[in-house]
Amino acid sequence: MTLKVGLIGAGGFGTIHLLGYVRNPNCKLVAIASRTEEHARKAAERFDIPNIYGGVDSWERMIKNEELDIISICTPNYLHALTVLKAIDKNLHILCEKPIAISHKELNEIESKLKNKKLIFFTSFQKRYNPIFPLIKNVIDEMVLGKIILVRYYFSHYGPYKSWKPLSKEKWFFDSEKAGGGVLLDLGVHCIDILRYLIGEYDKVNGINYNTSCINMSYEDNCNVLFRFKNDALGLISVSWCNEPSETIEVFGSKGYLKIDLGKKYSVSYGPRTIKRNELIKKIINYKRSGDIAQYHLIDHFINCIVENKQESPNFEDGKRAVEFVLEAYSLKE
Ligand SMILES: NC(=O)c1ccc[n+]([C@@H]2O[C@H](COP(=O)([O-])OP(=O)(O)OC[C@H]3O[C@@H](n4cnc5c(N)ncnc54)[C@H](OP(=O)(O)O)[C@@H]3O)[C@@H](O)[C@H]2O)c1
């Protein structure tokens, strides 16, 4: 089976998607749309894509004119839901970048249009393909730490356009209309998705504090959110665009704790000392990073689900719950 793929947004993360699709033998890139035609053309030359669309309406024309099976959406956040809705009308399988929408209205529209459709929807939560998370989940599910009481997730980098070089001059991440949120919508959605995978569904967001301390924008560039899971565990997500790149997850249970630094240098601390004898804890202590690109695994999984006609996570519901988490936290800002 060769699935025909059209991609929208030839920028930074669009390129990562393209690299993922070209490696997969069950699909072929047949069209690319990007606002700046030159950017679409360059990507088309590099990845051997026959059909090129440029302009602000390029995504609409591509969906209308091409016979596609799959659409990959890698545009600024405000365009995600608009594109998803058109793609559902054409019965296309969808891989949408996070956040999949920026309002409840958009989420509801997507949800009602998706009902009774047989298409596969993936949210681009590629962190789920980092092999460390299933190892942590095994420890939690096997009650090695006892009942989980508290989890903390810290995630930061220097911020858009400092952490990477943009293709376009436009700084849409700092434009509230186009981004729909700040660092919480950008990085926080990944954190809550991983925590839902590890611990279970969240119940309620209890509080937020935030500031805009280093970037000239109206949304937050530092943010802490306190919340509670349905199983009563407490959660804290702390995200920043004003800090060195770092990622740490801490899980505290009634019998012990685990703190894992997923940043530059992988390191683990735990307690009490005796839990290091546990085989599942040993796997985390001895874990070696493979250097694999998580997005390639996500794309392989997405294609496989289409081939086998099965919907797995990270799906629409996962994308929706993550956006709802952020919107609930934002509602507490006032
Ligand atoms: N999963 C992750 O970890 C992850 C990481 C990074 C980004 N992302 C997400 O990926 C998305 C894109 O981010 P990015 O960093 O790749 O941004 P980016 O480099 O600015 O790329 C965005 C692309 O969208 C194109 N675009 C803008 N308006 C368009 C329109 N009306 N029609 C067609 N194309 C249009 C731009 O086109 P031109 O350049 O041609 O003008 C640009 O190439 C965002 O939603 C972001 O949150 C996810």
Plain-language structure description:
The chain is an alpha/beta fold and 334 residues long. It has two domains: 3-126 and 296-312, Rossmann fold; 132-289, Dihydrodipicolinate Reductase, domain 2, CATH 3.30.360.10. It is 36% helix and 24% strand. It contains eleven helices and 13 strands. It has helices spanning 12-23, 37-47, 58-65, 80-89, 104-114, 132-141, 176-179, 183-199, 279-285, 294-307, 316-331, and strands at 3-8, 27-34, 51-54, 70-73, 93-96, 121-123, 148-156, 202-211, 222-229, 234-240, 246-253, 257-261, 267-271. The strands form two sheets. Strands 8-9-10-7-11-12-13 form a seven-stranded mixed beta sheet, with helices on one face. Strands 3-2-1-4-5-6 form a six-stranded parallel beta sheet, with helices on both faces. It is globular, with a radius of gyration of 20 Å. The N and C termini lie far apart (52 Å). Bound molecules: NADP nicotinamide-adenine-dinucleotide phosphate. NADP nicotinamide-adenine-dinucleotide phosphate is lined by residues 8-14, 33-36, 39, 56, 58-59, 74-77, 79, 97-98, 124, 126, 166-168, 172, 186.
